[in-house]
Amino acid sequence: MRTVTKDTLTQAFLDYIGDDTDPRTRFVLESLVRHLHDFATETMLTHEEWRKGLELLMKAGEISSPHRNEFVLFSDVLGLSSLVDMLHSEPDSTPSSVLGPFHILGAPTLPVGGNMKADNDGAAIIVSGIVKSTDGTPISGAEIEIWQTADNGLYSNMDPDQEDYNLRAHMVVGDDGRYAFTTVRPAPYIVPDDGPVGELLDATGRQPWRPSHLHFIITAPGHRTLVTEVFPSDDPYLDQDAVFGVREKLVMEYIEQTDLNNIPNGIADSDKIQAPYFTVDFDFVLGAE
Question: DSSP secondary-structure letter at 249?
Fold first, then answer.
């Protein structure tokens, strides 16, 4: 089209899409381009602003690595990750929440009741619960990936002083659907703000803190995979999470315990747990595929 104008540009793009384009791809691209063009028109986007946006994307690519994905972090702090989660969460299931940029594959297997705390500093926390279907039936053989920060607020792939896969585990539940492990309370932390995401937060006067949380990915045949995180009710950043990951149903209670006789059965290395310690009881509900 030789006579492209600001009024015909969007339609020109749409007309260029081939007839054999996958229908879903066509639908998503058409909507994306319409909104992009409307955004530029509505804001009267300047060349300087356009270049700044491209510069941030370029910086995101440069700072990203196998251990840090700045594009995921952009999606998180803009609320897009949480919106996609909420659009596809089922009302009777445990809500999903952001994956975050620090998940890595290959965590070591930990038996139910295992000790993930190891030599990490901080009070012991015993986390347990049932993985079940929406009808309340325990899900036998569900697989769980768990990861968290240490009490210094850093994940193992952020901190050279931590061992590889520190505070990360893969667990397979038994016929009763029960999971359990000992760990240390994770600390609130600042999302990485030394890159383009930090520039965005600074430019908008936003704080970079996340409340402390435990990450979970739970899979089971015949059920939808759940990617989520759970948060303690007493965290000071619960109502101002920088990546909008908190959901009411994902808030857990840390119960302080002073009697070592209250340690649940089947907890490995229970003789190493000192009072006070904490217990958490949190069930996960998976929807059907």
Answer: G
